Please model this.
Amino acid sequence: MKFERFKFDRSAQSFDLGGLVRAFSYALDLTEGQPAGHSVRSCWIGMHVGEALGLSQTELVDLQYTLLLKDLGCSSNAARICELYDADDRAFKNGFKTAGTSLAATLLFVTRASAPGQHFRRRAATIGNILRNGVAIADEMILSRCTRGADIARTLRFSDTVQCGIYHLDEHWDGSGRPGHLKGQAIPLFARIALLAQIADVFHTHAGREAAIAEVRRRSGTWLDPMLVDAFLSATRRDAFWRGLTCPMIESRLGAMVQTGEILSVDDDYLDDIAAAFGQVIDAKSPYTANHSSRVGSLAVRLAEAMDMPASRRRGLFRAAVLHDVGKLGVSNSVLDKPGPLNDREWKEMRGHASHTLEILDRIGPLHEMATIAAAHHERLDGRGYPFGLTQDSIRRETRIITVCDFFDALTSDRPYRAALPPKEALNIMRESVGSAIDGDCFDALAHFAG
Model:
């Protein structure tokens, strides 16, 4: 079922765009294998560099979005990393960022991190493939990530400056980076700042203040612009910089840094577009979930209309349905794309995605009410679902609709362990779960136009 652009009644509500992006950025931290708040902390670091450079308030606003959304395309290479390196994509990404910059350090990391725990022959085959095709593989994955990130930023109506900053994040000052092998001042300023900020936060989180300073200094003139390194070092001499970096109120402090006297507002239509864009980020995580979020969103609205749900509730339902799997950004592709049964550890990780969904959406003010609705899409009427173990009386109508739509779309789509089923066969399977796992009224409404 193709995604449809629904026309909801426009309301008078408006929301702070900066606050929304800061909240959504936590989803990007999940898929990069970084501790929660990485994007926000990188933003704090980069904004202080921007202030030291004397950037205008308008430039600082765009810099904020570049820093928060620098990893917007990162889910697009997760499955490829898992396949090529035979490893947990999130753990691999996390480790790679602290592996060092020399060829020897890179090779040592790849050798250790590829096919961990596997038989020698399997490890040798994996490493051999990487050594033969390593450059082409890296080019492919970085280009995919950069292109995807810039494309989504364009969809979200961010400026060319923001798009270019995201696209060129992995360029290096000495020309050794990607995707364009740009050098020096040819690299967009915001991309240069974002790379520095990312490195500083990764090493600060990994080993503390002195490690962050030392690593930034070490990469000056190779990966990093020496002028920006000087600006960073100037900022780090102030205790307020470090206090802010670890402050629980860091998001509020960031908001104050870019306050221009007029909050950049988001109306309901734009919020729908932001939700749909992050649905694309979710679906890019696995080749088996392409367009799953948009299909579930479209199907949920059709089902709600058929069940005479008021339009005011359908809008929130659409957002919750599109974002119901945002927590899967925190699940390794070795689990998501496994062609066989999951073991106990893998099931625990997979089931954890519902709790991740709650944690992410609960941060987003306009979606706060929808957080529990979306996160509960694996609950069952008989109380045997997860993550809350809700019983029938506690499961809202919106959640029941999302559950039915998610179930149907999963059955009628290709999965690692089976091909897509025809709609009638899917409905026959679902019918067996009516009354125990799924709501009968929702199922009847689905069967009416899907069978």
In short: The mean pLDDT is 93. Strands lie at 15-16, 265-266.
